[in-house]
Amino acid sequence: MTVAFTPWPNEFSQRYRDKGYWQDLPLTEILTRHAQERSDAIAIIDGQRQFDYRQFKQLADRLAGHLQSRGIGQGDTALVQLGNRAEFYIVFFALLSIGVVPINALYSHRRLELSDYAAQIKPRLLIAEQCHPLFCDTAFIDELCCTYSGLEVLLSSTDPQSRTSLEALLARDPATPLRLSPTDAGQVAFFQLSGGSTGTPKLIPRTHNDYFYSVRRSVQVCRLLSKDRFLCALPAAHNYPLSSPGALGFFYIGACVVMATNPEPYECFRIIERHSVTHVALVPSAVALWIQAARQPPQRLSSLKLIQVGGASFSEHLARQVPPTFGCRLQQVFGMAEGMVAYTDLDDSDEALFASQGRPMSADDEVRVLGADGQTVADGCVGTLATRGPYTVRGYYLSHEHNATVFDAEGFYHTGDLVRRSADGRLNVVGRVKDQINRGAEKIAAEEVERLLLSHSLIIQAALVAYTDPLMGEKSCAFLVSEATLSLPQVRAFLRECGIAEYKLPDRIEYIDQMPLTPVGKINKVFLRQTFNQSSS
Ligand code: OOB
């Protein structure tokens, strides 16, 4: 049994194979290719622990073997929530090597997100950390076990004697030898998470072929070397630090990935210095903090060669400060978990580097910039971005209706981003039309939060909109029409109680007597955003 996804039409898959983009190799090849030559090279540094490629593969194989002996394998899905630690990658490769298709939830996700993912994939396996608030007692696990019969649970840091201990399985060889059986390379390897703009988060099925190509191409564009070292300080599960070129790119060339729990500058600076880190992927809000912190000597960051910045709008003013502050190059990255990733080139002129988000990385990334009438606009004019290509998916998981609204008949994914394209193909992201808030690169689907707000007995209408924030880029304001005035802490406590991630809680609330409406009778969010940003500036 395989996991469903919307396939590329034959003429496209044929072309992508002919051009060598799709090589019909499983993603696990990223690790197995180092089994001989680079097996002594350090693959992961995580605090005091380090793993060479041999140990890394051995641990992934051990875990895979144990899971196989519990009857878990091809056709099964897994819900995984692990923080930034070596086990994240060990688990990832272990699952892929036996054909189990995981969703890697972000560590910041809570009950509502995880329940929703589980409802979509009906997992056979749950792997999580006992120190996470959701798993410090058994309530949520019990709930999941009741709903998904036969669910196997592995928890990190439980009593090593317990059957559910991840560490216990990693510590000993399984009784039976492992039979490697990844899913076919043309099939789904794992799910990425969509930032989303709808009430329920959408899952993005990524195949081995498409994802592997995006990793290899990213490695080329970024000209990685096996002696490079990548600091993974953003959430490891996110598409950007995973594959652009991210940890998988560094593993692919046999280089080293150094873990940080988060992008807090002082701790990251210590790690960079201690482990001679050369590359780091950041979001704009983190760069702003890094620039402030770097002004206070002594910081020895001379090993840094490249700081990548992406995930949200990055001001030209801040971009210009990166090379002189850190003595290294800057690369802008504009990407999406659905696929397409654009990079500025390492040799770009200052103008291209500071004022654009680069060019889509593949010659076969097809891009259309569309006006309100659906027609392509001239170069230099603003329009919405639609794209298709060898690593951009053709549909969300089991979302027939929604797919019909964001993927067109020709298979282009309509990103909801407003961009300007220059004659030489560079993209500049200037805004968005999708109903999403980009809070320091963490994406909030307005509708998801609004639905929860409306479940409060006193709230009559709710609209979540972005307002400008100097550090985060955007924060969220909930406009409410309500029978009584609830305080911001009360609203946040209510939403927390609903079980959503902290970053989705509104930063502000505003009460209004009635919602402004558009001519077709929808809440006029453009008006709300404008009036709010004007009145608070
Ligand atoms: C990355 O992926 P997602 O899926 O979390 O978010 C995608 C959305 C884009 O559609 C766009 O709205 C925004 O995030 N975005 C940017 C941006 N990079 C992403 N907006 C402005 N400037 C940028 N440089 O965020 C992602 C995935 C892979 C690589 C990099 C980022």
In brief, what are we looking at here?
With 537 residues, the protein is an alpha/beta fold. It has three domains: 53-207, Rossmann fold; 263-432, Rossmann fold (3-Layer(aba) Sandwich), CATH 3.40.50.12780; 436-536, ANL, C-terminal domain (GMP Synthetase, Chain A, domain 3), CATH 3.30.300. It has a nine-stranded mixed β-sheet with strand order 2-1-10-9-11-12-13-14-15, with helices on both faces. Strands 4-3-5-6 form a four-stranded parallel β-sheet, sandwiched between helices. It has a four-stranded antiparallel β-sheet with strand order 16-17-18-19, with no helix packed on it.
Task: Give a structural overview.
It catalyses: salicylate + holo-[ACP] + ATP = salicyl-[ACP] + AMP + diphosphate. Pathway: Siderophore biosynthesis. One of its GO terms (molecular function) is nucleotidyltransferase activity. This protein is α/β, with parallel strands linked by helices. The chain has three domains: about 55-205, Rossmann fold, CATH 3.40.50.980; about 265-430, ANL, N-terminal domain (Rossmann fold), CATH 3.40.50.12780; about 435-535, ANL, C-terminal domain (GMP Synthetase, Chain A, domain 3), CATH 3.30.300. About 30% of the residues lie in helices and about 25% in strands. Helix 3 (about 55-70) packs across helix 4 (about 85-95), helix 8 crosses helix 10 (about 245-250) and helix 12 (about 285-295) crosses helix 13 (about 315-325). It starts with 9 loop residues before the first helix and ends with a helix. The mean pLDDT is about 95. 5'-O-[(R)-(benzoyloxy)(hydroxy)phosphoryl]adenosine binds near residues 244, 310, 336, 415 and 441.
